[in-house]
Amino acid sequence: MDPRFKLVRAYRIKEGASATIEDPVTCETPITIYYNDQELVTLLCTLEYLDELAVGFLRSEGFIREKEDIRDIKIDPVAGSVRVSAGGPAAVAQNTFLKRYLTTGCGKGTSFYHLSDAVCKRVETGFQINSSQVLNLMIQAQRRSELFKMTGGVHSSAVCTKDKILFFREDIGRHNTVDKLSGRCLFDGVDTKDKILLTTGRISSEILIKSAKLGIPLIASRSAPTDLAIRHAAELGVTIAAFVRNQKMNVYTYPERVIP
Amino acid sequence: MDPRFKLVRAYRIKEGASATIEDPVTCETPITIYYNDQELVTLLCTLEYLDELAVGFLRSEGFIREKEDIRDIKIDPVAGSVRVSAGGPAAVAQNTFLKRYLTTGCGKGTSFYHLSDAVCKRVETGFQINSSQVLNLMIQAQRRSELFKMTGGVHSSAVCTKDKILFFREDIGRHNTVDKLSGRCLFDGVDTKDKILLTTGRISSEILIKSAKLGIPLIASRSAPTDLAIRHAAELGVTIAAFVRNQKMNVYTYPERVIP
Q1: In sequence order, what are the residues at sequence separation of 6 or more whose Cβ sits closer than 8 angstroms to the Cβ of residue A116?
Q2: pLDDT, tens digit, for every residue of A177-225?
Q3: Which member of A106, A204, A228 has the closest CB to residue B108?
Q4: Active site residue B120
Q5: Is A103 at the interface with chain B, CB within 8 A?
Q6: Structural domain span for residue B58
Q7: Same structural domain, B146 and B93
Q8: How far apart are CA B31 and CA B180, in angstroms?
Q9: Which DSSP letter does residue B189 get?
């Protein structure tokens, strides 16, 4: 049984008639991430690549920097938990994380309002790509999105070279797709400083910062950016290409990196 | 100046040529909600109807039940805060809220994994509507979405009678659109037990529960539902109609309420 979707009965109404159908619906599952036995966060996600999700989340939040930091990962899909045991910059990250989460009351959404908290280096690079390559990558990504084609209920993101997709992840959460990619890249020792991040979701400030933390010079989306993401991108040296579809795109920052 | 969007310079690449354009981009602003001087949560949102957003959020989380609970609302758009002073079921809600947020580490996304925490009554109703009315409401909502048409970067939701939209809200956050509507309905004393909630966003478990808390019998979306939302809907007595577009829809729960 594929844990990513489920067939449910629905009544399809079309031009006044109705029929019973079996409809594939995306599954939404709460998974709690523990860091060295401390409960950190519960994410609603698609049940695959949970090791990547946990490690990518911990990497985005500054708990893990290198693959060598990780000692052990225990996934328990029945309990809905991933337990990561790790060394590394833990203590500092933990303080910052808990302070942030306690003072704001809420989690994920609030981690990074202030760029000074994001501990993000400016992306300095001579990276360039042809606009036709960006369009081509987006078409490749669309072809790959099988779960979306089936359920219409997930986002997808991909880490790419200029010519091809390296890793492709679908998840009901936009943020999770990027965390899963981040985890994968850490596991495989992939240098992301010359890679492209594609996403179907909007480019919000949070997605932008997750991407910038990986040192990625270009983030491209089929959808829209927000003003805050554009301001962060300008500060952090990231190129935003949005509305990448139908042979067109808008480039909002560092346009010299995308050659028409 | 309209605080909901901003004109930014972009480079539009189309068929190998590029041109500088002024592109309207949706604004994403962090707003912190205080409840009786206690900082509760920071939401990334669209800068309008902030009183509704704060009160709707507090209502969803169980801090406020009736309009009479509210003593004062202070909006400070420069500091990015809304301070609500209120009486009511505060103490209990506050304990539950803080406990949840502390134990899970993260906020919003994690509030309602367990239906027992949601303090939600089952929706019992003889409500019925024609499928053509649902389709017609969705068309009305699309016509109203001016910010989306301009920026492509927001979601919208609406509270409707069977024939017309009562309130329509656009926001960069799916959840915020519903909280704003909830706040509005509380301000105006609107009984939501025979109303419809329309949304452009996916129907996730969190949106479903926000809607069920208002006693709304039917939630309709242009987009997909998740399996968890469908299970909650079955338990809470809510009808889900999804993929409402192009003269079609799928009804997942309590289909007897939608007459083809």
Answers
A1: none
A2: 999 999 999 999 999 999 999 999 999 999 999 999 999 999 999 999 9
A3: A106
A4: no
A5: yes
A6: 29-118
A7: no
A8: 13
A9: T
Q: What is the pLDDT of residues B179-235, one digit of tens each?
A: 999 999 999 999 999 999 999 999 999 999 999 999 999 999 999 999 999 999 999
What pLDDT is stored for residue B62 in this prediction? 87
* Burial of B126 from C-beta contacts in 10 A (0-12 / 13-18 / 19+): exposed
The verdict on residue A232 lying in a domain is yes
Q: Please report the pLDDT score of residue B228 as a whole number.
A: 95
Given A27, A45, A106, A160, the catalytic residue: A106
Q: Do residues A46 and A2 touch, judged by C-beta distance below 8 A?
A: no
The Cβ of residue A77 has, within 10 Å, a number of other Cβ atoms equal to: 12
Is the same domain home to B102 and B164? no
Pick the closest to residue A221 from A197, A252, A237 (CA basis).
A197
Dihedral over Cα of B95, B100, B101, B107: its sign: negative
Answer whether residue B191 is part of any domain.
Answer: yes
Say if CB B219 and CB A147 are below 8 A apart. Answer: no
Contacts of B43 in chain A (CB under 8 A): 106, 109
Query: Rg of the Cα trace of chain B?
Result: 19
Residues of A in contact with B225 (CB under 8 A): 25, 153
Distances (CA, A) of A61 to A30, A32, B40, B123, B258: 19, 15, 21, 40, 45
Give chain A's domain count: 2
Is there a single domain that holds both residue A252 and residue A144?
yes
- Which of B26, B131, B258 lies at the smallest CB-CB distance from A226? B26
CATH number of the domain bearing residue B187: 3.40.140.10
Task: Please give the C-alpha separations between residue B199 and each of A101, A131, A223, A232, in angstroms, as whole numbers.
Answer: 29, 34, 18, 29
B26 vs A contacts (CB less than 8 Å): 224, 226-227
Residues in Cβ contact with A1 at an 8 Å cutoff, skipping those fewer than 6 apart: none
Domain co-membership, A80 together with A144: no
**Which has the closest alpha carbon to A45: A84, A82, A86, A83?**
A82
Distance CA B151, CA B147 (A): 6
Q: Does B8 touch chain A (CB under 8 A)?
A: yes
Which two structure tokens, joined as six digits, stand for A169? 């992840």
SS3 A223: coil
Q: Please indicate, yes or no, whether residues A143 and A247 belong to a single structural domain of this protein.
A: yes
With respect to residue A59, please indicate whether it lies within any of the assigned structural domains: yes
A245 and A137 belong to one structural domain? yes
Residue A5 near residue A25, CB atoms below 8 Å: yes
Q: Which of A68, A94, A118 is the last residue of a domain?
A: A118
Q: Is residue A129 within a helix (H) or strand (E), and if so which, with residue range?
A: strand A129-130
Q: Which of B18, B23, B147 is nearest to A252 (CA)?
A: B23
H-run or E-run covering A33:
strand A29-35
CA B238 to chain centre: 16
